[in-house]
Amino acid sequence: MKVTIKTLQADSYQIDAEPTDTIRVIKSKLEESQGFSAHLQKIIFSGLILKDDDRTLESYGFSEDKFLILMINQVCIASKGHSMVFFEQSSSAEKSKK
């Protein structure tokens, strides 16, 4: 099936997936096709962050007529070696910078 992934900045991507694919597999496919590091991805479906990478699309009730939302975490290093994580919506412009 085709899985549509959207961003809040109106970018849209499609990947081929199976209902039995895990969220980890979806993140990996997005990394391969779009260059977004899998460990920085947050995937949202029906208002929920899909935190369990081992659950399948079908276990969340996902079907081809629905879509996922992608957000990318940005990590910044603060003073004195502390790190801060910011949630930033991915965009085509960011992708082209890589």
Automatic annotation (TrEMBL):
Q: Which Gene3D superfamilies match?
A: Phosphatidylinositol 3-kinase Catalytic Subunit, Chain A, domain 1
Q: Which CDD domains match?
A: Ubl_Rad23
One GO cellular-component annotation of the UniProt record comes to: nucleoplasm
**Matching InterPro entries:** Ubiquitin-like_dom (IPR000626), Ubiquitin-like_domsf (IPR029071)
SUPFAM superfamilies of this UniProt entry?
Ubiquitin-like (SSF54236)
- Which GO molecular function terms does the record list? polyubiquitin modification-dependent protein binding; proteasome binding; ubiquitin binding
List this protein's GO terms for biological process: proteasome-mediated ubiquitin-dependent protein catabolic process
Where would I find the Ubiquitin-like domain in this sequence? 1-74
Report the domain of life of the source organism. Eukaryota
Name of the protein described by the UniProt record: Ubiquitin-domain-containing protein
Query: What is the species of this protein?
Result: Dendrothele bispora (strain CBS 962.96)
Q: Upper lineage ranks? A: Eukaryota, Fungi, Dikarya, Basidiomycota, Agaricomycotina
